[in-house]
Description:
- By secondary structure, the chain is mostly beta strands.
- The protein folds into 2 domains: about 35-115, Elongation Factor Tu (Ef-tu), domain 3, CATH 2.40.30; about 135-220, Elongation Factor Tu (Ef-tu), domain 3, CATH 2.40.30.20.
- The chain contains 3 helices and 15 strands.
- The strands form 3 sheets. It has a 6-stranded antiparallel β-barrel with strand order 4-5-8-7-6-9.
- The two termini are about 30 Å apart.
- Residues about 1-30 have low confidence and may be disordered.
Amino acid sequence: MPAGRAVRTFNRNGCYSFNSQRLKLNISEVFTGIIEALGTITDIRTEGTNRHFTVASPFAAELQIDQSVSHNGVCLTVVAVDAPAGTHVVTAIDETLQKTNLGQWTPGRRVNLERCLSANGRFDGHIVQGHVDLTATCEEVEDQNGSWLYRFRHATGPGRVTVEKGSICINGVSLTCFNSTDDSFSVAIIPYTYEHTTFQDLRPGDQVNLEFDIVGKYVAKLLGK
């Protein structure tokens, strides 16, 4: 295979799998950051350092055991499905709880849900792995009479790069950032996104999951930044 040529295949869940010899990019489950539905946490059970979350959603009956679903941007594996009740269960280990905002979840909390991209799906957002880099703090929410402006601040570090008009994934939502600095950026939310995601629940001081653009992270690594 010529250097740098990308090969696209499908895994057993019907998700895209990419491999590039040049970048050594291997993504077994790919999301797009286009939220399918809102789910609600109905129960939380602790087992050792793990937490099992029961989630009610409109498509729970369509899920299968071992399927990957993005919950607020975190790729989690479905471990149980109760189709009549319209719920499924996912498990988060301690590493996930420490690096994301899942440790703050309580029953009644709403979460953004997206199943991995199907073989015949449209790539409407950007490449999202479901691997959260860190959490950020919402510093400001401004109602602009037709849209909403959100300002976020995050810790700096290797690969934590945003660029003006570049892509960022916030709680699983693919968005365009602006007013970008080394440790902060803004996004604008249209009414449809506001109404169909958890952005309507977000307040200053809240923690959100961030996944920086995978292409930007590879470029930053190649440049030593």
